[in-house]
Amino acid sequence: MKKSIAIILIFILAFVFTGCSTTGKDKSKEAAAAKVFNVGEEAKTGDTQITVTKVERSAGTEWDKPEEGNEYVIVRLKIENVGKETIDYNPLYFKLKNSEGQLLTYSITFEVEKDKTLDSGDLAAGGKKEGSVVFKAKKGDANLELQYFDNILEKNPSLKFKIA
Predict the structure, then answer these.
(1) Which tens digits make up the pLDDT trace of 116-150?
(2) Which of 126, 120, 111 lies closest to 59 in space, CA to CA?
(3) Residue 146's domain spans which residues?
(4) pLDDT recorded at residue 32
């Protein structure tokens, strides 16, 4: 009986300690998440390399306007697969953190950037995709940060970009 308890205890401890270890890939991901990149800088997490190439603000169009006191923030991106395996991309992987600490998801617009909007899909090794992600934010908010998450279930961003 004591031998069985000792074996079970060893398995539990081994499971706990292996779950707490950090791999080299995890450390590089943590380092990238700690750094805040600027517009024009290439940022890498895993096999995904992202560059914010341009940021614009818009009051919208005659038919597609944000609510009073808000504006559209249009973030133009370049995504590259720098690995050997296929990766996926999705506008839902991006959130905009505003000066109040709110994480905003992308806005669906029908007129603003309609032909340039980032869709979702896959990139083969060496593949590239450019597109825009549009957010609604308070007009003139000067403390905006674009955050990239490896998937929609992640709680912590892998990459951060100072965009305002």
Answers:
(1) 899 999 999 999 999 999 999 999 999 999 999 99
(2) 111
(3) 35-162
(4) 57
- Structure tokens given for 144: 């905006």
Contacts of 104 (CB under 8 A, 6+ apart): 95, 96, 97, 98, 135, 136, 137
Question: Does residue 20 surpass a pLDDT of 60?
Answer: no
Instruction: State the DSSP string of the chain.
Output: -HHHHHHHHHHHHHHHHHHH---HHHHHHHHHHHSEEETT-EEEETTEEEEEEEEEEE---SS--PPTTEEEEEEEEEEEE-SSS-EEE-GGGEEEE-TTS-EEPPPP-SSTTTTTB---EEE-TT-EEEEEEEEEEETT----EEEE-SSTT-SS-SEEEE--
The answer to whether residues 57 and 72 touch, using CB atoms and an 8 Å cutoff, is: yes
Which CATH number goes with the domain that contains 71?
Answer: 2.60.40.1240
